[in-house]
Amino acid sequence: MSTMSASAVAHRGLYRAVQLRRNKGIGGLTIVVLLFLAAYAVLFPGLLTFEGFAKFSQTWLPLALTAMAQAMLMLAGGISLSVGATVSLGAVVAATTMGTPLGVAGGLGAVVLVGLVVGAITGAITVRLRLPAIIVTLAGSFIIGGVALLILPRPGGSVPTTVSDLLAGTSPVAFGLLLATIALWKLYAATPLGLGLYAAGENPVGAYRSGVAVDTVLIAAYAISGALTALAGFFVAAQTGSGDPVIGSAFTLNSIAAAVLGGVGFGGGQGTMRGAFLGSLLLTVMINVMFFLGLPPVAQYIAQGLIIVGAVALPEIAKRRAHRAGRVQS
Amino acid sequence: MTRVSYFAAGVACMALLAGTAGAQAAAKCITGAHKAPYTLGWANIYSVPTWMKQTTDTISQEVDALKQQGLVSKLMITDAQGNANTQIQQIQSMIDAKVDAILIDAGSATALNRVIADACAKGIAVINFDSLVDTDDLTAKVNTDQGEWGKEAAEWMVNQLGGKGKIIVMNGPAGISVSDDRRKGAEPVLKAHPDIKILAETNTEYNVAPAQEAMTNLLFNNPEIDGVLSLGGALSAGAILAMDKQGRALVPTTGENYRQFLELWKKKGLKGWATMQPNWLGALAAYTAVEALQGKDVPAYVKVPLPIIDDNNLATYIARTKDFPTDGYIYSPYDQAMFAKLLTQK
To answer: What ipTM score was computed for the predicted complex, to two decimals?
Structure first.
């Protein structure tokens, strides 16, 4: 008994230490995000109303979901260039199924299924054939985007008003969905598949030797990431009340930007999901703050670049400072 | 304040709202208190293309004029960088900032419907021009007729060739609604004249280089070409450059008001015809918004007739080239009197 409790204490200590180290990496970003949120609330006090908060979380949700989907792959040492096309496909499937006898539940099921299948196939090709994810998903983006265009050659379709009003109305349901997604991620991260994600990303060979089913972990990650991305498309369809076969294009780059901004590295195993999450929040709130500051479009391009570089560079500079200070002390 | 006085204030506000709403019920969407000078928002989908830059310039100039008339206080400009989701976000911010009117060149025919309906429900005037949305939940749409464009271009070509000849048809990218609509407009005219033979059709970006390349390839296979029915300005410039380089005789060519095309047309002295998607659609949208906000009735669809450039008035366009960028579009002159006339149509 006593040894067990000792190991439990040690385990808890280790968990806390790991979490602390991880949080340190995103401390700078957190401050930047909080500053921007504060600035936004000052410029637009309506943010603090029920409706204002609802509208903001609706704007944020699709990027948050795609950023998480992207981070999941990047943590595992992969990447996806087909995020945008999958968002479009999800939106198109949602807008063409929910009005049919399949109904809302059927439509939602179809979107999840399509996302899972697309992700699993991409993952299987990448992992089993040992092909670079960047090539497979780039090719995948053309195929998936093409299928979206086949299903809906021109913007159209429809989403029941009840669904749109529920998800993208005046109550913060979108924020609730975000919290639910985070909770699900926490659960997943505690399963062997979730734990294996970091291990497979950081050191695949080591992970394999210590008994992690690396291939299964990776394919599962691609499948879940695909489902998450397609769900972002479902939400976009609900938000816009229709389907547009190219609506998602910008999400590919933005999801990568959000993840990298949040400290997720291209090498795999580095960074945190919460970092990617904060990154997506910064990218979203930044656009609104620039609007309320009244910056002209040209200045917005420059400001956007500066903010992104700054958010990545500042924590790095701070870290080096702290490192140097630490060395001087010791 | 006591509870009673709150109530009284509330009633007074309601009465005030009802009063102003009653006075301004003319145009769709506009409700609540809107008092000049107004705040306008211009939700641009993408600010980088030259056409868009010139369009934004016409809006800014119109707003400057309206400022001097005491009708506009501020113009907010956003750039969605080609992303319809960002455009939704920016329109939402304009609603949050309580602008009086929003001008939109849409990045998607459907995606903006709900946010536009939101703006409309909040009493904001919404004017959509150039690239249109498929909802009618807004104050007014402002545009030319792309089908008419194709039809008139084809008619001119048929007349030039006396109803008989071999032509090449140059289109914009496949699957783009503007390109499709223009081609569709030309179809019945070409069908009605079976002696007009289409040698080949091209689909390229609306840029000079790809059009020139496509034309160069076609020239090798087609020793005899009587006309070039081009449905976009930069395409015509590419066609002329290709033919000129190979020493081919220049034939009747249609096109758009792209500066390089107009200059080549003048310099080479060919038979030409052009129309345009006038950049001042943006200025007209701003003007329409302010008219509607002042309580005037505006048509739900402001149809703008296509301005035509032909051999008779080409010189007046060439004379103004110095006022336009080298890769820009020389649009027809406009003023508020003309706008006012366009708004009286039903």
So the answer is: 0.87
Q: Does B199 touch chain A (CB under 8 A)?
A: no
A244:B111 CB<8 A: yes
Q: How far is A56 from chain B (nearest CA, A)?
A: 9
pLDDT digits (tens, 9 = 90+) for B3-56: 444 544 544 444 444 444 434 446 888 888 888 899 999 999 998 889 999 999
Say yes or no for a CB contact (<8 Å) between A291 and B90.
yes
- For residue range B53-74, list pLDDT tens digits in order: 999 999 999 999 999 999 999 9
For residues A257 and A279, give the distance between their C-alpha atoms in angstroms, rounded to a whole number: 8
Which chain B residue lies closest to A57 (C-alpha atoms)? B89
Which residues, numbered 138 to 157 in chain B, qualify as contacts with chain A under a Cβ-Cβ cut-off of 8 Å?
none
Domains contained in chain B, CATH given: 27-144+279-304 (3.40.50.2300), 146-275 (3.40.50.2300)
**Contact call for B78 and A288, based on CB within 8 A:** no
What are the extents of the domains in chain A?
58-281
